Amino acid sequence: MPRLPSICRHRVGWVGLLLAATANFAVAEEPVVAPAARHQQGNAQSVAFSPDGRLVAAGFGGPVVTRDKQRVKQGRIVVWEAATGKLVHQVEAYGDVVGLQFASDGRSCLVSRVYTPGDSVDDNVSRLIPIGDGEETRLSFGRMSYLATLSPTSGQFAIVKGRDIAQVFDSLAADEMMGEVHELSIVDSYSASALAFASDGKTFAAVHGRLEPILRKDGTLALRARAIRNDVLTLFETTTWSVQDSVVNEELLDCTALAVSRDARWIATGHPGGIARVWDGRTLQKKEEMNLQAETAVLPRFAPDGKRLALLTQPSGGLTWRRSQTPSGFTFERQWNQTPCELALYEAKEFQLQRTFRLEDAAFATYHANRPRASLNPARLAFSPDGNSILVGCNGVTLLDAETGETIRQFDLPHEAP
């Protein structure tokens, strides 16, 4: 018999303390369990729905292996028809596919990869893959270039480059990307750690760093150095790219994922330790805190109409390393995580818990010895455009009914690689 959901929630203020004390007892329903099922691959690292709901996509990371003097990439990006499961397109991939998103016209996918092959080399990139024939476009390459997102309603594209919070292009067309760019910054700001557009495309949000003076032990200030603290949340209006509001809050320091509701009424942040926080889009003050009682990061996603919030815990199985008497001086081991993940649905007004799903085959592999934070909280959850179904990177790739938790369809990799 499945256990009761172990999800706590906390409100701000003394009334919230009373509600939090009784929250566990108010949830009577047991979680819907999605048992493990047979599939042909590991669980997807990232998933996405096309804007019209016709296609779904999934990103499977992997290493690069040398065979007969050829470098074989063992990951893939795969696209299927949502209604039939028919394969539409697939391309090679490698590293950790931490982001996957369809462009607003549905004709291409943004793929964001983290990969560190060694010697402190960052082979990180965001690229645009056409669905069907055509050439892919490498949008950016560099240490932070995996932090990228597309507007769901236009051709606008945001990416972290340099010390700006982000750089925004009005079009994905290669010739236009060489032209004017919106370089987003505020006083003493530094590059973002999480980016998101609202689903109506009118608001852009970033959790980003700020530079602050370094105080020495003797009480004097360091003159030529400043510390970076990633504890700022800033909202931008996407017509003029002016700042709507900005707040500094230490509870943003460990944020690894960001979601914005349709009208920017609410902003949700995902954190390690099973924590998610909801912020009031009008005041940027914390509204709610949810604790999913997990040791993993939490990925938040709002339904397209902004009426529901989904939270997914992220159990991962990654590479670890230790020094040893080997030619390289290191030994690598994979630690498998057999923990199920929790998918919790809340109504997005008072954020009452509506339903909990437990996905038994949930862990995903990472391909970094050091497991960077971005690799531990990839985009493994997506709502359908109508909000009636949820795509998750569990049991391979699974489409769930958002109301009942029943499996609508399971998508499998083809046997033949691209």
Automatic annotation (TrEMBL):
Membrane-spanning ranges: none
Signal peptide: 1-28
Swiss-Prot/TrEMBL keywords: Signal
Domain of life, source organism: Bacteria
InterPro entries per record: Quinoprotein_ADH-like_sf, WD40/YVTN_repeat-like_dom_sf
Keyword match Signal: yes
Protein name: WD domain, G-beta repeat
Native source organism of the sequence: Blastopirellula retiformator
